[in-house]
Task: structure prediction
Amino acid sequence: MANAPQAVMNHKQDEDLIRDFHHIWHPCTQMKDHAEVPPLLVDRAEGVYLYDREDNRYLDVISSWWVNLFGHNHPRINQSIKDQLDKMAHVMFAGVTHQPAIDLAEKLVNASSPQLTKVFFSDNGSTAVEVALKMSLQYWLQTEKPKKTKFIYLKDSYHGETLGALSVCGINLFREKFEQVLPQNLEVQGPDCMRCPFGLKRESCQAECFEPMEQALVTNRNTVAAVILEPLVQGAAGMKMYPPVYLKKLEEACKATETHVIYDEVAVGFGRTGSVFVSEHHGLNPTFVCLSKGITSGYLPLAATLTTEEIYQAFYDEYESFKLFIHSHSYSANPLACAAGNVTLDLLAEAGFMENLKPKIESMREQGDILRDLPWCGEFRQSGMIAAVELVQNQKTLEPFPIEQRVGYQVFLEGLKREMYLRPLGNVVYFIPPLVIEPDQIKTMMNAAYESISAVLKGI
Amino acid sequence: MANAPQAVMNHKQDEDLIRDFHHIWHPCTQMKDHAEVPPLLVDRAEGVYLYDREDNRYLDVISSWWVNLFGHNHPRINQSIKDQLDKMAHVMFAGVTHQPAIDLAEKLVNASSPQLTKVFFSDNGSTAVEVALKMSLQYWLQTEKPKKTKFIYLKDSYHGETLGALSVCGINLFREKFEQVLPQNLEVQGPDCMRCPFGLKRESCQAECFEPMEQALVTNRNTVAAVILEPLVQGAAGMKMYPPVYLKKLEEACKATETHVIYDEVAVGFGRTGSVFVSEHHGLNPTFVCLSKGITSGYLPLAATLTTEEIYQAFYDEYESFKLFIHSHSYSANPLACAAGNVTLDLLAEAGFMENLKPKIESMREQGDILRDLPWCGEFRQSGMIAAVELVQNQKTLEPFPIEQRVGYQVFLEGLKREMYLRPLGNVVYFIPPLVIEPDQIKTMMNAAYESISAVLKGI
Result:
C-alpha cells in the first residue's frame, strides 16, 4: 500500500498546496476541509490510475467525475488532439464550420435514436440542458402554443447548476440557496426503487409509480413544454436506478399530452449502462438528448444537444421571421474537443468493444457481493458499468445515516489510504470506473471499498 | 484576391458541406441562410489567417468571436498543450488539484485588481457569470441580508445566454423568446455615448448619464445583490464604448448602498482595450470579475470567476454549516486549457508586449480614418485594439438602417470576397483582431472593410 495519507498530509511543506489554498476555490467543496486535508495534488495519469508527485497511485474509481472512458493518456486520443492542434485549435462556429465537428455530428446522429438528426454543440452538461430547455420553449412559442412554458422534473434529479438547469433540479441541497430566483417548474415524485412504496422489484414492476407523472402531465398539458429526466440512473441523487418501463410510459403520456421529452444522458451516455446511449438501446423516442462528460472520453469540455427534424423546422425560415435560435458560446464545437469526440465514437463502435463490456459488467456484479454482505448495505445496485452501495444505519428500516455524520467523506479518506479515489455521494459509495478497467482491478476496487467502509463504520 | 465566393458557392459539390447542412445546427444562425450561402469550411489556421481547403485565406478580423490573442497555431501555446497532454489531459477538480490550475490561478490573481484573491474555474463566459451571480446571492443569504436577491444590469448589456446570465442581459433580441421564464431583475439605462442625451463627449464628460443607476441603487438598496456590467465596452450591443468615469461613480454608489460590483471582462479582458484587465488598469475595486474567451488565447474553453477574501470567508466554515458553494462542472480547470492559460498570461506579461500594442492601437486609429470618411459613418469608435464603425442612414440624425435590411450580413458576404472574415453586429462593422496583427494587415483590413461597406451601401 502506498503511503498516501503521508503524502496528503505533507501539505504544510508543499508550496504548491499552499498556493492552491491561497488562490483556488474548488467546486462543490467546503474549503475549510482543505485546511485539514489538502486536495490530492495529481501530477500525471495513466490508464485507470492517477499519480501524485511521489508516484503514489490512486484508482480513478469515478472516472474523474464520470467523464473518463478509455483511461488516461490514451495514445489514439492524445494523437488525435495533437494532429488537430497542428492544423487549428479553434475557430468560431457561426458562419464557419470544420471537419471535426461535421464528422462528430454525423457519428452522434448515427449512434443515437433514429429521429434525432440535428446536433447543437456547447461546452458542458449545464449548457446542453439549457439549450434543450430554450429550444423547447421557443418551439412552442413559434407553433402557437406560447403558454407551454413550464418544465416537469423528477424529485432527486440533477441536470446542472446554471440557473435554468438548476430550475429543473430535484435535489434540495443544490437548489435551496437560490430558490428565490429560480424559474418555477413542476417537481414530480419519481421512481424510488430501493424504498419502493408498492413493495415491488425493478426487474418485474410495471412502473406503478408513474401515476404522479401521468397526473401532472394531464393536469398541466396546456402549460408544460417538456419533461426532463436522467434515463435509468439518477446520478447525483446517489446513482438511484429505475427500470426502462418508466420511460416507455413517459413517452406515451408525453405523446398524448403534446409534451417534449428531454433525456439528459450526460452521465449515462457513452457506454456507462452497457449501451452507447440509453435512449437508442431501449428504442426510445426523445425530442431532445443532452450529452457531455464522456463525449470526449474525459479529455476536454464539450457538450451536444441532439434534436429532431420537427423541432429544427420550427426555427428554419427566412431571416426576417426572426425564428432563429439565438444562443451561442464562443468555444462551441471546439475542434480539439471534437477531435477527441471522434475517437471516442470510433472506439465505442469498434468491433467487440461493447461486447467486451459484458464480462466486466458481470465482474462488477460478482465482486459487488462483498459489499452486499456489509451489515450497512441498504442496497447494492448496478446498471451496466455503474454500481453503488447505499449505506444505512438499519438494514430492516433502511434508515439512513444522518448527513452530518459524513460517512461518505470518511470513506473517501479511508479510500485514499487504499489507493482508491472514491468520492461518495452522501452515504452512497459508488463505482463508475473507466470502461477499460480490468476484472482484477474491479476486484481490488470492490475489496478496497469494503475495507474502507468497514474501517469507518465498525467504530460507529 | 482569392476566389473566395467561388469556393463558398461550390457547396452543392462539397460532400462535407452537405453533411454539415444535414446534421449541424449552428449557434446564432438562421440555418436557412446556409441553404444559399454555406458556412465557410475552414481547414487550418495560421497567425491571423483562416484557410479553406483551396488554400484561400481569410483574415480573422474578429479573432474567432473575440477569443484569439496571439494568432492561430502559436508554437508556444501548441507545445504547452502537447506537453500537458503527455502528462494528463484531465482530472476532476473536487478533492483534487494540479499544477496547471495552481499556476494559472496565481497568475490571474497577480494580474487582476489587488483585492481579488480567489479563483473559481468553469467552462465559458455564461458559467463564469452564473457563478458570480450565485456567489453574490449566497453571500447575502449567509450574511443576514437574504432580501438582496435582485441584480441590476444595463440596457444593451450582454452576459451570456444560459437563463441566469440571460436574466441580466439588456438586449431584447436575446431575451424576447424566453422572457416568461427569466428571473426578474432590474434594467437601467446606461451610457449611450454616440447618441449622448446630454450632448457631451466621452473624453470630457463626468458620466452625467449615471443618474438612473444612482437612483436604482438607492431605491432598491435592500433588494439588490449586485450590479453587473461590461466595463468600457458593451460588446454584443455593437462595441458601444463609454468612459471609465462611469465605473468610478458606480463603485462609489455600490459602496454606499452595500451592493456587489460584477465586472464581466469576458470580452474586454486579456489585452483587448490595451491593458491586461480593465478593472486593474483603472484602479477599480470589483467584488467579482468574470473571465473567459482570451483566457486560453482562443484555444480551449475555460472560464474563471475571481472574487475577494470577504466573499470567500462568508462560505468558509465547518462542513456542518452547509455554507459551502455548491456548484460544479465536470471539466472545471481542465489541465489542457489551464496549460494554454498559463502561456497566455506569460505572453501578456512579457517585457514589451503591452507596450508594443501602442503603435498598433495608433495604427487602428489612423487607418480607421478611411471609415470615418464614409457617408454612412455614424461613429468610428475605438478602445485599444477594439474598433467599430456604426453605419447609419443619416449622419445628421444618426438614423439607423432597418434591421431587416441586413446591411451587416451583406457586408459580411462582401468581406469574404476580400479575404476578410468580418461578422458585423447588426449595422456595426467592428474589428477585434488577434493582438499580433501587424500594421500592414490593419491597413488591409480597414481598406477591405471600406470597400465592402461601400459595395453594399452605394446601391442603397
Chain B touches chain A through 127 residues (CB under 8 Å). The first strand of chain B starts at residue 40 and ends at 46. The first helix of chain B runs from residue 4 to 9. Confidence is low (pLDDT under 50) at residues 1-9 of chain B.
